[in-house]
Design a protein that fits this description.
Helix content: 40-55%
Oligomer: single chain
Low-confidence stretches: none
Strand order of the largest sheet: 1-2
Mean pLDDT: 93
Strand content: under 5%
Length: 125
């Protein structure tokens, strides 16, 4: 199925008076099929990116401009992170440490997300 057909099918899903299970199955099928297509495109993009990396290495440059666009290698940097669960265990074990670390701790609530996977059990809705 191409993207245009998928969009048209989704746009009419409510107009066709489908049963909830039918609508869900149709939407899930489109979602999963388009996901497979995206995965295929990601492989193609990764291959093209590797060709560009090879070209940059071959010419000994970290930047290349062409009529199609610009490719460049960013400056290396250091990214650090901390094991929050490990620090929480340490805070529980060391009195007063929680107060010392509190100004540097932030928490934010993350909403639940809808997950769609292939091969689920068939159930009545």
């Amino acid at each position: 199925m191409d993207a245009q057909t998928a969009l048209e099918q989704l746009a009419t899903i409510y107009d066709r008076d489908l049963q909830p299970a039918e609508a869900a199955t149709e939407a899930m099928t489109i979602y999963l099929e388009m996901g497979e297509r995206i995965a295929e495109l990601d492989v193609i993009r990764a291959s093209a990116k590797q060709v560009l990396a090879d070209v940059l290495a071959e010419i000994g440059a970290d930047r290349l401009e062409t009529a199609a666009g610009v490719a460049y290698v960013t400056t290396p940097s250091l990214r650090s992170s901390y094991d929050a669960k490990g620090l929480d265990k340490l805070v529980a074990a060391v009195p007063g440490l929680a107060n010392m670390l509190a100004p540097y701790r932030t928490e934010r609530e993350i909403a639940g997300t809808l997950t769609i996977r292939a091969g689920g059990r068939a159930k009545e809705m």
